Amino acid sequence: MQTVSENKCFGGVQGVYSHESEVCGGEMTFGLYMPPQASRGPVPLLWFLSGLTCTHENAMTKAGAQAYAAEAGIALVFPDTSPRAAEAADDEAFDLGKGAGFYVNATQDPWASHYRMWDYVSDELAALLFENFAVDSDRQSITGHSMGGHGALTLAMRLPGRFKSVSAFAPIAHPTRSDWGRKQFSAYLGEDETAWREHDSTLLMHDLGFDGPVLVDQGGDDQFLDLLMPEQLAEAMTARRQHGTFRMQPGYDHSYFFISTFMGEHVRFHAEALGVA
Amino acid sequence: MQTVSENKCFGGVQGVYSHESEVCGGEMTFGLYMPPQASRGPVPLLWFLSGLTCTHENAMTKAGAQAYAAEAGIALVFPDTSPRAAEAADDEAFDLGKGAGFYVNATQDPWASHYRMWDYVSDELAALLFENFAVDSDRQSITGHSMGGHGALTLAMRLPGRFKSVSAFAPIAHPTRSDWGRKQFSAYLGEDETAWREHDSTLLMHDLGFDGPVLVDQGGDDQFLDLLMPEQLAEAMTARRQHGTFRMQPGYDHSYFFISTFMGEHVRFHAEALGVA
């Protein structure tokens, strides 16, 4: 693992690190914020999964999360959104290939050799963090934006016991019925739609639910509402009697101005579930 | 004036607007955050002047200031750092020409025709804001980073009565004795150094001081300490018995991670001087 940069921030350290990823077949980069409390022992870890076109950097510089993480004593990890090796397949569209891993393990050529973001986030990067930093594997929560909200919700539901709480900002909520999902799942997972089910938050909410609290924020003026399909997730949460809150926030769009506005409440929501509020 | 974008943010509106600038001889763009309180009447205005290489966008997306401005009910304006017209002179160096206006009115060719950032900020943009937005010209304060901290301090001291308070993050504090200053003042103002004096915060602090409170934060691990010369400003503030605070912050560098860490305290400092704390 190499240190790309470390900047003091709210009394802690905002680092950027790179490492050779076996899972993604090449170098990967991630951001990690360690709060000041980490100097006294392991702290809880909140994962932030980013959306289409993002790298590890967007949320790290624009979401304003470090202020709240420092207050609560929580570490933040910002993984990249896809493999980045030069030889990894790509596509000209912004919503397929690099920057658009969709947090799945691709089974189809030419993607299968590098596009394994599910395993990267849930296994390889997690192990790397617990080995190298003062973060506590028994106290993890997860959040994300858009494609990353989809990733956060699907990981949380399919790995019971792993995360104490899950939240999402404007998640891609029902990808098996949306052009943000069908196109990518066809490419990465193939035409057999039964393999898609386990990557659809709405279907997983009906089938499994989550064994902890859920918080979802959705901007009412989001320019991508038709692709996100939040009403399907809200219906599923309610039908399942899921412990959780779905909030429609009037006037907000899909941008980081929306995310930063509600970031404080999300971090505090997770802090409570993690026992540090 | 054209609206480039408007995003809801912390209950208010983060806007980006462009306009034809007579002073800078071409189109200029600025960011303006209007807090929710502006719907009930004019609010105070805090200027944020940015540093070398920045546009209106850097602080607007990375400083995290909107959270605190919404809390206090203060508008924030983020001007650009130089003229941008295609025909405006430029230089290959990052610290001269576009992105490096240094908040002076150039008197030398080829800069004099467009590089008039002093007049742009103090007159033209100010007038545009008071004409078009619910901001109160009697309640203004100013802050900035690096080259923008230099701009904030020099504008505040040379326009007595205009600003209720001034603060700066890692300002270029003594440009007449630094390579961040001598090079640019030679180009923009000519070789006669007497014209430089009124753009040097340390000299102005000795000569004039500021008729209100001053707050300066400086990172102890700033990679540009030798160019910023903060010790000269600290000496001048103390020698003058200036009402104010100079804080050395150990471990912090020159980045937005430093700025965002202390932004809340700066906004609250200005809110108090503006009578809204």
From TrEMBL, chains A, B:
<keyword id="KW-0719">Serine esterase</keyword>
<dbReference type="GO" id="GO:0046294">
    <property type="term" value="P:formaldehyde catabolic process"/>
</dbReference>
<dbReference type="InterPro" id="IPR029058">
    <property type="entry name" value="AB_hydrolase_fold"/>
</dbReference>
<feature type="active site" description="Charge relay system">
    <location>
        <position position="146"/>
    </location>
</feature>
<dbReference type="InterPro" id="IPR014186">
    <property type="entry name" value="S-formylglutathione_hydrol"/>
</dbReference>
<protein>
    <recommendedName>
        <fullName>S-formylglutathione hydrolase</fullName>
        <ecNumber>3.1.2.12</ecNumber>
    </recommendedName>
</protein>
<dbReference type="GO" id="GO:0052689">
    <property type="term" value="F:carboxylic ester hydrolase activity"/>
</dbReference>
<comment type="similarity">
    <text>Belongs to the esterase D family.</text>
</comment>
<dbReference type="GO" id="GO:0005829">
    <property type="term" value="C:cytosol"/>
</dbReference>
<dbReference type="InterPro" id="IPR000801">
    <property type="entry name" value="Esterase-like"/>
</dbReference>
<comment type="function">
    <text>Serine hydrolase involved in the detoxification of formaldehyde.</text>
</comment>
<dbReference type="Pfam" id="PF00756">
    <property type="entry name" value="Esterase"/>
</dbReference>
<keyword id="KW-0378">Hydrolase</keyword>
<dbReference type="GO" id="GO:0018738">
    <property type="term" value="F:S-formylglutathione hydrolase activity"/>
</dbReference>
<feature type="active site" description="Charge relay system">
    <location>
        <position position="254"/>
    </location>
</feature>
<feature type="active site" description="Charge relay system">
    <location>
        <position position="222"/>
    </location>
</feature>
